[in-house]
Amino acid sequence: MKSARTMAPVALLAACGLLASSSYAQPNATAGTSRPASPQDSNSNDIQREVMHELRMLPYYSVFDDLKYTVNGTTVTLEGDVVNPTTKSDAEGAVKHILGVTSVIDNIRVLPPSPDDDRIRRAEYRAIYSEPQLSKYAYNSVQGIHIIVNTGHVTLEGDVDSQTDKNVANIKANGVPGVFSVTNNLQVHSEK
Hints:
By secondary structure, the protein is of the alpha/beta class. It folds into two domains: about 40-110, Histidine-containing Protein, Chain: A (2-Layer Sandwich); about 115-190, Histidine-containing Protein, Chain: A. It is about 40% helix and about 20% strand. It has five helices and seven strands. The protein has helices spanning about 1-25, 40-55, 85-95, 115-130, 165-175, and strands at about 65-70, 75-80, 105-110, 145-150, 155-160, 180-185, 185-190. The strands form two sheets. Strands 4, 5, 6 and 7 form a four-stranded mixed sheet that branches. Strand 1 (about 65-70) and strand 2 (about 75-80) form a beta hairpin. The longest helix has 22 residues, at about 1-25.
């Protein structure tokens, strides 16, 4: 009986590992392309997968942060906005240690501390994620809709399933008191 209990978590972890590796199968592949991948393409794809993984695993990365990156050969450029300065330094440190990365350009902006922005962040989170149509985006390890608040100005970043979801998120974000503006940068999966 004890061995069956210890085997279940191992099987679950193995299944998760298989699912994780299949979701990164060919991040930059274009449908219908038949040219063989060059070693540089393969290395760049490996670096992209590792950067994505490392950024998602950061301990303080939250729904109130937005990290983006580009890979140019062996150079990684980090961009985005974070609430906690530790997230910025952790992101740079994690990416520097990826095999094949020779340099990291850290353009991540640390948002200024503000009790008003913190209040808006909490209110935006409740408004967006308590909406039944949008609550499905809260169940991922990294939420689908990121809420960036900078001196009362809100920016929505991330991916949604439909234009309707994007519109509902915009309406909910604009309904929060004390918000000066809302920029809706949500991407609909079909638009990518």
